[in-house]
Amino acid sequence: MQEPRLDSVTCASPAGLHRMAYWEWGDPDNDRVLLCVHGLTRTGRDFDTLARQLAPHFRVVCPDVVGRGASDWLANPAYYTIPQYVSDMTALIARLRPAALDWVGTSMGGLIGLALSGALAMARALRASGGYTGTHAESLGNGPGIRLNRMVLNDVGPRLDLPALRRIGEYVGQPGEHASFAQAVRAMRENSETFGPHTDEQWEALARYVFRRQGERWVKHYDLGLAKPLAAQTPDVYAAGEQILWQAWDALDCPALVLRGARSDLLSAETAAEMCRRNPRARVVEIPGVGHAPTLMTPQQIEPVAQFLLG
């Protein structure tokens, strides 16, 4: 079975330098890059099934967002925020230098993609207005003209359901230690009912990279400090962030596919419909029997994504 290569890129935060790991599939010389970015408490290995299918067509790159998986943890957890993640992704894109860049983002990964699209659009606008100096926009990849080719948002949009965010936030900071990997799998399975039906082998695959052995215990792979900036959010901050994300969505100038779990409590059917009204280049595909978020492990979920990206 094909396995990915592991590499890393050095990024910066106000607290200093850190290393962001990424898993890479396919021909390393392929300049058609597909970036797959995971959800809040997951890792880049969530995309193994999708990446294996698309590796003949793309250089598929699946980072472990800082604070997770094989990546470093930040010295100051206050910087576990979307702007920091966008900064890290720009460093990665500069390393990859894609001629064409496609994006698949699950939950948080979709928000990072939306915010990045706004930064890319701003860089192009600065260049068109004559205000481009080279330094900022060049850092966003292969020159200031880079743009997203296609974007997949997996069960996420500019407007998020606050009770669902609070539910997720309460889980993030819980230690969750287990005496065996089998117990860790059972715990994740119980906490992830919204993922929908999976085989025993699929549940084990979903747990394999989100728990690590520490002595005689199995613990979560990520920095529990991720919960701190979430706890500091207020309704006013969420409202301001939503406005920025809607602006980025309205300005998105590439085709977009929105996957929505039919039982999702994070992305409502009404928000998905509004996304299509506001951006005519978008379409929604609902995944029956699934909440937040589709895991992209079954043909039913992978096929619409593959057809969209290869279309």
What would the keywords be for this entry?
alpha/beta; 311 residues; Rossmann fold
Global structural class: alpha/beta
Annotated CATH topology: Rossmann fold
CATH superfamily: Alpha/Beta hydrolase fold, catalytic domain
Write down the domain tally: 1
What is the strand arrangement across the widest sheet? 1-2-4-3-5-6-9-10
Number of strands: 10
The separation of the N and C termini measures: 26 Å
Q: Would you give an account of this structure?
A:
The chain has 311 residues and is α/β, with parallel strands linked by helices. It has a single domain, classed as 3-Layer(aba) Sandwich (Rossmann fold). The chain contains eleven helices and ten strands. The chain has helices spanning 48-54, 82-96, 108-129, 135-138, 162-172, 181-191, 200-208, 227-231, 235-251, 269-278, 299-310, and strands spanning 5-13, 16-25, 32-37, 59-63, 100-106, 148-154, 211-214, 217-220, 256-261, 282-287. The protein has an eight-stranded mixed beta sheet, with helices on both faces. Strand 7 (211-214) and strand 8 form a beta hairpin. The chain is globular. The two termini are 26 Å apart. The model is unreliable at 135-139 (pLDDT under 50).
Write the layout of secondary structure elements.
Blueprint (H helix, E strand, L loop, with lengths): L4 E9 L2 E10 L6 E6 L10 H7 L4 E5 L18 H15 L3 E7 L1 H22 L5 H4 L9 E7 L7 H11 L8 H11 L8 H9 L2 E4 L2 E4 L6 H5 L3 H17 L4 E6 L7 H10 L3 E6 L11 H12 L1
Parallel strand pairs: 3-4, 3-5, 5-6, 6-9, 9-10
Antiparallel strand pairs: 1-2, 2-4, 7-8
